Amino acid sequence: MRDRRPRARPVKSALGRCILPVCVFFALFWLSRASSETETGTITASGASLSKSSTSTQKRDAGSCDVHAPTRLRQRERRERLFGWGRAQGALRLLRGDGIEIKLRNAGRSAGRGAVNRLDKYGFFVTDPVLSESEADITRAHLLDLLRSSKTYAEDEGCLGDLADCTERFDLSLRLTKTVTRAVNSIVSKLKPALVEIFDSEDAELVELSALITCAGSPEQRVHSDADSIGNGDRLISVFVSLQDTTADLGPTNVFFNSPNPITDFDYFSASQMLRRVAEELNNTDTIREHGLGDLYINATGMLDITSEEGVTKAELDFFNAHVRVDETDNTIAFYPPWSDAASDRLILGVVGATRQGSALVYDSRTSHRGGRNTRGARVQLMFSFQSKRALISGSTFTMRRRYQRVERLPLTLIQRATMRAFGQEFKTSPKAGAWTLRTGGKIRLRDFPLRPDASDREREWVNEDLVRSTNNERDFDVDGLHLDGADI
Ligand SMILES: *[C@@H]1O[C@H](CO)[C@@H](O)[C@H](O)[C@H]1NC(C)=O
Ligand SMILES: *[C@@H]1O[C@H](CO)[C@@H](O)[C@H](O)[C@H]1NC(C)=O
């Protein structure tokens, strides 16, 4: 359900269809996600077949997927240097590089309430470690070992899953092996109070479980969010747990504020619309050119032509993104106006989720984010998502192993149909059933934790089997007992 390939839908029309405050929460752009991989050279169950390795395997084993862990950044000063906190001023000092944990001044009365507050204010939060260093080490080694058993590992492209900017990025959906189960149980036991508070129920469904791995060479992704539209009150929450200290050169997830909040007056979308307001203020072709905005707002006949399109055009967004940079001293991400050197002119929009080993980045699926550029080696994350019980979330891609999913046909109300149309989503109609779509849910609920493993750590057959081929899950499922046996609906 996230970080998927971009859809054909043009930005302009997607944005043009929403009213801004709605967009802020509901718009999403392109999909994709990142991660990387590597391993420390353990012999694996599948080692025999992999050892006649392809050049791609060799390249990955020989460096691009090296693990730079454990780095053991237990001492705060060392983390400070690597993750860059301590120099930021004011509210920004709260964006700690030791995880980008955002603490509200008076937060902390209850961990659960704090989590909901932070999710609603910022769209994300980072926790202290929810896995110990040794648990994280063991889990990382296991996930890399699984990845090495994947056919993709030996292929040139190095792309597993339905990801955008999918070079050296692997999204391996997981079985509940012994090690995966132990790690997930451990993480959920710590996060459970927050998750219960967020969902207001223990019936939330596990709808994603995967290893997200990137290796050196994976590029920065485009900004995207994971869900287009969400039924009233439904939530989809994703948890990324770093299995090594994830410094900026490993390409941690960048997360953007989706609404004004105590740290910034701007969300990503209203900041990108700012360019148009600047051009209106300048109101003069010469000065508009001097400010670098000529290509955007001066047309072929040399006249000032500021579009009145609703939403942001692709050209505006490209220009905007080209001037978005990370401040390595505090891991903030800001738009730096090309016409100004004044630090005070930058618009802070988000933060780099550089986190220490074992900590979790938790974010709402509507939060804009992107995978960072990895120049160093394996970045391994265990990730999972929960959605509200029986949620209808369009735009998500459910990649969980089929054995853990339930797919059903859902008749759509007028409002649901209109919402889906507004986001360019398709649904089906049939004379008998009217308008309907498929809803994917998870069989495993929050209340079912701790889970029991259903595979040993040594089993490998499943790794290349049963991969979800259709992101809409329209194939191969036993939908409504239709016994499709692999046929399209
Ligand atoms: C821009 O300048 C023109 C001509 O001087 C003026 O008529 C117009 O009102 C100005 N627009 C804005 C937005 O200030
Ligand atoms: C350029 O912009 C002016 C003012 O908006 C408009 O009247 C004119 O038709 C535009 N020319 C072209 C070629 O788009």
TrEMBL record:
Signal keyword on record: yes
Biased segments, Low complexity type: 44-57
Transmembrane segments: none
Record keyword Cytoplasm present: no
InterPro entries for this protein: Fungal_Metabolite_Diox (IPR051961)
Stored Gene3D superfamilies: q2cbj1_9rhob like domain
Database matches in SUPFAM superfamilies: Clavaminate synthase-like
The entry's keywords: Signal
Endpoints of the signal sequence: 1-34
Renumbered residue ranges of the record's region Disordered: 41-69
Lineage top rank: taxon: Eukaryota
UniProt name for this protein: Unnamed product
